[in-house]
Amino acid sequence: MTVITFQGEHGSFSEQAGHQQFGAGAHTVSCKTFEELFSSLDDDRAALGVVPVENSAAGSINKASDLLLNHDLRIQGEIMLRVQLNLLTVPGNGGKIKQVRSHPQALSQCEGFLNRNCLEAVPWYNTAGSAKDLTACPEPNVGVIASYLAAEIYGLEIVQRNIEDMSYNYTRFVVIGKGETGQTQNAKTSIVFTTPHNPDGLSTCIREFADRKIKLLRLVSRPRRDYPWQYVFYMDVEGHWREPDCGAAILGLVNHAAFVKMLGSYPAAVQPIEDRYAQKVMLQD
Question: Would you name the residues annotated as active-site residues?
Fold first, then answer.
């Protein structure tokens, strides 16, 4: 059975993304840190990893970007997960909640709901971890914000669904592992590169894709840790590197850039995607 690793407690959105991609029966293994996840792939304790790279509301996840640069792994797939935040508590205590625990980002994304209901927000290390800890030490006045999967795993009551302030809240995950995927339709290619220190360094690199009518999907910069005040650029473009135009553009990028690393060509996720755990709960009502 294929082992798929993710960062966080069981019931996290990363694990939910893994189930969305590989099915509810997928053999998912929790890692405490992103570093542990990447190491599990390096030494073959796992075949694939599910890693969040950006959120539609909060932006890029920098730790994941840094590790993709520093490890010899390839992106093999993409997952778009609708992040649906839910108020959970110990069964029977739905009307008694005064304090709500969760990861600071989840709390901030539900700030309007918490303020309207006069609920105290208490930061916790992890969304699924807040659910796990409440089940281990039940408190009648405490609720948590977490996923549908966390409610299912830890036996908590869903008091209210979809309490996030922004309904269009997606996290983009990538599936990473050793080796590359074959050429597919609707592909996306991810690259990281640095530019020469001259005025048109970046524009010259990007022009290789624009001149071939290849759509630029994402471009973000990160500081180079080994060179202060210099930056690396993470870029996603449409197409597979084996396609003639895309391959020629990448070759042109190599000729102009100071450094280029291919992160992978892989099937792009189709948007929008409804969360199957939400559908499951709705059908049970």
Answer: 171, 173
